[in-house]
Each structure stands twice: as structure tokens, then as C-alpha cells.
Design brief:
Elements: E1 4-6, E2 9-13, H1 16-26, E3 34-41, E4 51-58, E5 77-83, E6 105-109, H2 114-129, H3 140-146
């Protein structure tokens, strides 16, 4: 059952503890900096794929993880938006297993706390399922407005 549902889509909040347990059992767990993640259904956004994963990571140093590359001065968090393969059903315990590359969008941003970063991501999720914000790459300009273009090449 989705955590959110609107006229133009549904969204499931990813459970970091359940994901960690799943990967520990599979032997694929590794240290990470995940703050939050969402699996989003937006069937209206693209004719070939309708599921997306939006993940947010903190940029603090963590033992066992290479220091993050900073693209935006004073950045505290990074978000990444991926389309998921239409060939497999999305998996809430391993949503990135079927992600398409390259990412649709990525950005570093400044948030006072992890909770504020989560709220920023959740606002985007809400806009997607309301049909206001498209996760498709054709709408990159809208994502830059909400975050910035510091990571764009």
C-alpha cells in the first residue's frame, strides 16, 4: 500500500532499516549515507517507464566511505533521481537494482538538518504525484529551479 496517493501517482517511502536488513541477509550491505528515499509511480511522465527512485544522502564524512566530492560550496546533502527499468517490477527493498543510467537528475543542496533535507525531497514527491513536477529528463529546468545546476556538466 502506498504512503501517498494523488490523482497523478503514488509513492512509497523507503524503509532504510528494512533495506539494510535485506542487504545484510543477501551479503550485499555496505556503509552508506542515505537520509531518505522514495519509490514514485508517475505513469504519465514518460511513455516507456513509469517508476522512479528519488534518494537523498548526507555529505558528512563516514568511516569506511570515500569522502564525497563537493560540487556546491557548503553543500550538506545530495539527491539523485533515477528512472527504473520497465522490464522488472519495482522492489521496495532494492529499488536501485533496476535503475536506468544515467540518472535523470542529481544535485547537491544545503539543508540545516537531515529532517529539512527529507522535507525538501518529500515536497518534490508530492509535486510529482500531483502532476506538477515531471521526473522525466525533459523537465530538467524544473529540477534546477528547485535545487541548482551545480552538478550538471
Amino acid at each position: 500500500m502506498p504512503d501517498k496517493e494523488q490523482r497523478h501517482g503514488r509513492a512509497w517511502r523507503l524503509d532504510n532499516k528494512a533495506i539494510e536488513e535485506y542487504h545484510r541477509k543477501k551479503g550485499t550491505w555496505h556503509p552508506h549515507t542515505s537520509v531518505c528515499g522514495w519509490l514514485v509511480e508517475a505513469l504519465w511522465a514518460h511513455p516507456l517507464w513509469g517508476y522512479y527512485c528519488i534518494a537523498c544522502y548526507h555529505l558528512r564524512q563516514v568511516e569506511g566511505i570515500k569522502d564525497p566530492k563537493i560540487y556546491l560550496e557548503d553543500a550538506t546533502h545530495e539527491m539523485v533521481l533515477f528512472a527504473l527499468s520497465p522490464d522488472e517490477a519495482p522492489n521496495l527493498l532494492d529499488p536501485m537494482a533496476t535503475h536506468l543510467t544515467p540518472s535523470n537528475f542529481a544535485a547537491q543542496f544545503i539543508a540545516g538538518t537531515d529532517i529539512q533535507a527529507e522535507q525538501k525531497i518529500e515536497k518534490c514527491v508530492d509535486e510529482i504525484i500531483m502532476g506538477i513536477l515531471s521526473p522525466d529528463t525533459d523537465f530538467l529546468r524544473e529540477w534546477v529551479k528547485r535545487f541548482n545546476g551545480a552538478m550538471l556538466k
